[in-house]
């Protein structure tokens, strides 16, 4: 269901709950910090949630939700979304009734996280590696404060991303250099890497990175690394 640019009313909320969508798009919506958690807690079939440019306070309100069923979350271009905000929504559920450690992880089945254009720093990568054990796709495009140090955290054991990460978007990353390629070579399943418009990484360095991979990678569109298509 797509409610892009809508002002969400109580009638909208009731209608969404009745429909029980698997995909919900609330991009550029006016939805407050009480409405969003009320809604998410009642959507047991929800798998994908997009909150592009939604108010940061509303997004942070997800901390009161138990989102184990959610697989994709997009918080791109949310103003003032920073490390503290990410920590708020990812930190484990402290409900003592949930005995097992993995059950306390609020987004334990999340495999895609998009945070393009946010104010996160390298510190945020600590929360990503700690609280998202099944992450396969990560978008950090246009995050000007992400550096090689943050990327290193994704690629250093015991971070689960060493073995789970398949796709990483670092396009328009001002502070990411070719040192990150050395780190990323440790990610065992990485088959897509976007560094377009990242001035400190050369196309030549990406070609060398792709050549060393065992996944038959190629470089196209200048700085996009992905799997080479096998011709039938």
UniProtKB/TrEMBL annotation:
Please cite one Gene Ontology biological process associated with this protein: SCF-dependent proteasomal ubiquitin-dependent protein catabolic process
This protein's GO cellular component annotations are: SCF ubiquitin ligase complex
The UniProt entry, under InterPro entries, shows: FBXL15_LRR, Leu-rich_rpt_Cys-con_subtyp, LRR_dom_sf
Which stretches make up the F-box/LRR-repeat protein 15-like leucin rich repeat domain?
60-226
Q: Which Pfam families match?
A: DUF7885
Q: Which domain of life is it from?
A: Eukaryota
Q: Which PANTHER family match?
A: GH16156P, PARTNER OF PAIRED, ISOFORM B-RELATED
Q: This chain belongs to which protein, by name? A: Leucine rich repeat
Name its species. Answer: Popillia japonica (Japanese beetle)
């Amino acid at each position: 269901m797509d409610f892009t640019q809508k002002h969400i009313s109580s009638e909208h909320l009731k209608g969404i709950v009745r429909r029980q969508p698997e995909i919900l798009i609330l991009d550029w919506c006016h939805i407050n910090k009480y409405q969003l958690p009320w809604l998410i807690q009642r959507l047991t079939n929800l798998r994908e949630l997009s909150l592009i440019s939604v108010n940061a306070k509303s997004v942070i309100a997800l901390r009161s939700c138990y989102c184990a069923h959610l697989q994709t979350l997009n918080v791109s271009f949310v103003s003032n979304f920073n490390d503290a905000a990410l920590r708020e929504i990812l930190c484990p559920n402290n409900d003592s009734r949930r005995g097992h450690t993995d059950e306390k992880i609020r987004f334990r089945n999340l495999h895609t996280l998009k945070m393009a254009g946010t104010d996160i720093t390298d510190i945020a990568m600590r929360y990503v590696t700690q609280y998202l054990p099944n992450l396969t796709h990560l978008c950090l495009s246009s995050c000007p404060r992400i550096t090689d140090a943050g990327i290193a955290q994704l690629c250093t054991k015991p971070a689960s991303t060493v073995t789970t990460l398949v796709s990483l978007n670092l396009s328009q990353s001002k502070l990411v250099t070719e040192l990150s390629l050395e780190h990323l070579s440790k990610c065992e399943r990485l088959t897509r890497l976007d560094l377009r418009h990242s001035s400190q990484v050369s196309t030549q360095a990406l070609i060398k990175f792709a050549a060393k991979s065992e996944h038959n990678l190629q470089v196209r569109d200048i700085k996009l690394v992905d799997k080479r298509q096998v011709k039938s």
